[in-house]
Amino acid sequence: MAGNRRPPLDLLIVAGLVILTDIFVLVPALSESFLRTIFGLLLVLFLPGYALTAVLLPAKKDLEGIERALFSLGLSIAISPLMGFGMNFTSWGIREIPVLTGLSVFTLVMCVMGYYRRTRLPETEAFGIKLEDSISILKAELFEESGSGTDKALAALLAISILASLGSLAYVIGNPRGEEAFTEFYILGPDRVAENYPTQYTPGSSGTVVAGIKNHEHRTVDYTMEIRLENHLLPLPENQKHIRLDHNESWEEPVTFTPSVEGKNMKLEFLLFNETEKNVPYRNTYLWINVTKET
User: Is the pTM of this model over 0.90?
Assistant: First the structure.
């Protein structure tokens, strides 16, 4: 019976790692620690797949320990991009906190379901991990005389590969590449989503979009924004034309404009200049609009 069983050690560890990841990402005092990167990689590359494997394959006979780990890795590599793809169609978008929340909730729910699935099997048949047994099995595979030479060689190769991977991970974390300097510049519809842009106008009518700038330049930058319709400059208020942002600072405001010429399929350009280049846009985006008299 489920009530007489101890909670499975492996699923408890998975749930604990998910919670630790959330803490190291969300708590400012811990978010700069290298452990944040390690826990984040586990959440993206292993934990969701392991929890889902517990649901799909709850019995010992379904998969051995090593095969189960590799299967979990493959599932996680599939789950994480799908989670991000799904987030892209929500109002949250592909951002750190929504993706973290999605992966965390998914993994914890799968842990609960995996535990339930195992309780439906006899305790001797349900998959589980005991630390002492795992160490004994690994020692037996590597050092005892039983088993073929090929099996021992494969086990040793697997152990060396895991150690090499951990060493590579530690090197990458300890010697991070410098972050690229860039600026985000985007245009959203009036509802602050990437759709429902105003494209139909009559002479003298106005339209509104939401313009956004995010400075990742590692320095303070003075930006200049312009709106041009078929190369005709449209007026903007001073506080929207000149924007000064510190590193990692964002600016997002509704921008209202009035098309100055009539025509169909005209290019409405949103141009962003930085302080070092006043003639060539640093970033740009555009819409195609129609300005016609009502008939």
Answer: no
